[in-house]
Design goal:
The protein is an alpha/beta fold. The chain contains 15 helices and 15 strands. Helix 8 packs parallel to helix 9, helix 9 runs parallel beside helix 10 and helix 10 runs parallel beside helix 11.
Length: about 450
């Protein structure tokens, strides 16, 4: 029986071999199934989803944001698509306008993840948050067309549920909002925000009024300056009552990490000593924009500029709207900044202050800073033909603004060779403002 079985098996194997041998070549090939979108790797799907993004350029902060607001329907397709689209959809959150309050409350409820049926911890995906107080609703208490979305409870909720990956925070407070001077009630919990958001690198505040408290009594914003992660970008616009010690502490805390510093419409608490601290402790600054409110006297002097040109050698953008107190002594050091692209000193060295830049200093600036793209100066009587000849060393020059220029200077032919068009704006009877820009 074993022999018969073996024989039958041999015959069966022989039959099978003969059948395979007699089969056509196409039958031996594996069946190739069509590739569907479900079979693509997450990396490829993420790349495909990126084409639904919208690029938004922020002109105030000079940077581009990538928004994925159109990925909502993709999160409802399947679990794999939801796992890829949700982190992209939730990484940028902006709240402003009439529905900001309702959207903000919904957002905070979802980040708390109180419902166990939630698919993700959505707060862990958030990388950037922007909240702008509304100016469209009447506040009956003070009669202003503002409403405050940014409350201590909102900031505390963000620090608890959106702190894992939060990198960029922008808060635009309502104008005229007064913060309480009490120790607890009505104060933004900056300390909790600094301790929880350890990945926060960019902070932008507008219209923030600090409480009038001594630094030694636990000033909330000073605690933030002490315990926060070293920031790469610090933007403070129309912020009042920030103590001078807090500015100095921010300079020491940020240190080498800080690359962009914007302090616009500052009050008298920001002075030359605070600017010197930023220049000393932040050598990697690339963007500097500083100005004061109208009734505050200028704070930028020669000591500030000398410290800046000695330590911050990688500066690319400088805008000092109130630098009336600088003289040619500090202007001579600007050629050290070889990476300089934009230099804006619109009210520096005016004729009223009696300070004017020498011709040699302007020529040295033009010859050394060959990457200049924009140049705004007040240089009465110093911009002679030698200065314009030196500007030929700046092939990337796009905009040139010179106020109080000598009226007898003939430079039309020189700037035609640079492709610049001239626009003359008579500001006063004794001075002219000439603007050149690239022809488009």
């Amino acid at each position: 029986s074993l022999g018969l079985i073996k024989k039958d098996s041999d015959q069966g194997s022989m039959c099978d071999t003969s059948d395979v041998g007699s089969s056509s070549p196409t039958q031996n090939q594996d069946i190739v199934r069509p590739v569907g979108i479900q079979s693509l790797s997450p990396h490829i799907l993420r790349y495909i989803f990126s084409f639904l993004a919208v690029q938004h350029y922020d002109y105030l902060n000079h940077r581009t944001h990538t928004l994925y607001h159109h990925l909502g329907p993709l999160t409802l397709v399947c679990k794999s698509w939801n796992a890829i689209a949700s982190p992209l959809l939730w990484q940028e959150r902006t709240f402003h306008g009439w529905k900001a309050g309702e959207e903000l409350n919904t957002f905070l409820q979802q980040t708390e993840n109180a419902d166990f049926s939630s698919t993700h911890e959505y707060g862990e995906f958030v990388k950037r948050i922007e909240i702008i107080d509304s100016h469209d609703v009447v506040d009956k208490q003070n009669g202003q067309f503002v409403i405050n979305w940014i409350t201590p409870d909102v900031v505390l909720a963000m620090s608890e549920h959106c702190s894992k990956r939060l990198r960029d925070l922008t808060l635009v407070f309502a104008t005229g909002r007064q913060v309480s001077t009490e120790n607890e009630e009505g104060l933004i919990p900056w300390g909790a925000l600094a301790e929880s958001c350890r990945r926060l690198f960019m902070l932008s505040l507008t219209n923030y009024i600090c409480p009038v408290l001594a630094v030694g009594n636990g000033h909330p914003f000073h605690m933030f300056a002490t315990h926060t992660n070293p920031l790469t970008e610090l933007v403070l616009k129309r912020c009042k009552n920030i103590p001078p010690e807090t500015f100095q502490q921010l300079a020491r805390t940020c240190g080498k990490a800080l690359t962009k510093l914007v302090l616009l419409d500052s009050d008298e608490n920001l002075g030359s000593a605070e600017m010197i601290e930023f220049a000393r402790h932040c050598p990697n600054l690339r963007h500097l924009n500083v100005s004061w409110i109208e009734f505050v006297p200028p704070k930028i002097n020669d000591e500030v500029v000398l410290e800046m040109t000695s330590n911050c050698l990688r500066l690319e953008y400088i805008s000092l709207l109130d630098a009336n107190e600088i003289s040619d002594v500090s202007f001579q050091t600007l050629p050290k900044l070889r990476y300089l692209r934009n230099l804006i000193l619109p009210r520096a060295g005016s004729a009223q202050s009696g300070m004017a830049y020498r011709q040699e200093s302007l020529v040295a600036l033009a010859k050394s800073c060959k990457r200049l793209e924009q140049l705004h100066l007040v240089a009465p009587g110093a911009t002679t033909s030698r200065f314009f000849e030196a500007l030929l060393f700046c092939p990337h020059l796009q905009v040139l603004v010179i106020a109080e220029l000598c009226k007898g200077l003939l430079i039309d032919q020189r700037f035609k060779t640079l492709g610049l068009a001239k626009y003359v704006d008579p500001e006063t009877t004794d001075a002219y403002k000439l603007v050149w820009h690239k022809k488009t």
